[in-house]
């Protein structure tokens, strides 16, 4: 659930207020990408510190941890609310970074599409040069046909010889006519 800006600022000291105010709308939209990344790292450090303090305060109330120094005031609930303020600020910064990344990706995609279109148009309207070139001509593909051809009178001679031999055998046995 979102927390009003005034209640956020009432939980923070002066330095933390400046950091949190820079995560709200008009300012966060004007920041550069590297500035947003450094701000996100700073916010994570602050959130982690508050998380540690709230966990320690909870352990103190249960009696499982020794009390911390006098500088830590408030309850675990106070530290939890401060932690949620920093978490909400991190979320705003991450959303802005995501928006910037999408914008950059869209721009890169548009540039790539324009380059591809230019290449396609250049290829479409250009014709290859047909200047005469010196070369050996077409490559010879070896034929699969027989290299030695038989004369036409020898085609079928084996079949005819078999036919005559069979006729002779039949004539000897008396099977003819």
Provide structural commentary.
The protein is mainly α. Helix content is about 65%, strand content about 0%. Helix 4 packs antiparallel against helix 5. The longest helix has about 50 residues. It is elongated. It starts with a helix and ends with a helix. The model has no long low-confidence stretch (mean pLDDT about 85).
Put the structure in a nutshell.
The chain has 177 residues and is mainly alpha-helical.
Annotation keywords:
mainly alpha, 6 helices, 177 residues, single chain
Using only CA atoms, what is the Rg?
46 Å
Question: What is the number of beta strands?
Answer: 0
- The secondary-structure class comes to mainly alpha
Report the sheet with the most strands, covering strand number, pairing sense and barrel closure.
none
Shape: elongated
Region (Disordered): 50-81, 120-177
Write the layout of secondary structure elements.
Layout: H1 5-10, H2 14-21, H3 25-30, H4 33-62, H5 76-125, H6 157-173
């Amino acid at each position: 659930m979102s927390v009003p800006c005034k209640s956020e600022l009432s939980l923070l000291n002066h330095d933390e207020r400046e950091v949190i105010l820079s995560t709200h709308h008009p300012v966060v939209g004007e920041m550069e990408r590297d500035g947003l990344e450094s701000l996100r790292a700073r916010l994570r450090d602050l959130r982690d510190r508050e998380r540690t303090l709230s966990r320690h305060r909870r352990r103190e109330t249960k009696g499982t941890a020794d009390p911390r120094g006098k500088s830590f005031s408030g309850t675990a609930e106070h530290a939890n609310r401060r932690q949620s303020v920093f978490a909400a600020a991190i979320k705003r910064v991450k959303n802005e970074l995501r928006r910037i990344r999408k914008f950059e990706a869209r721009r890169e995609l548009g540039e790539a599409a324009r380059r591809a279109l230019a290449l396609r148009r250049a290829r479409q309207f250009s014709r290859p040069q047909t200047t005469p070139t010196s070369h050996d001509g077409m490559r010879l593909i070896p034929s699969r046909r027989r290299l030695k051809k038989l004369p036409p009178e020898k085609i079928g001679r084996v079949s005819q010889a078999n036919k005559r031999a069979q006729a002779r055998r039949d004539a000897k046995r008396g099977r003819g006519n």
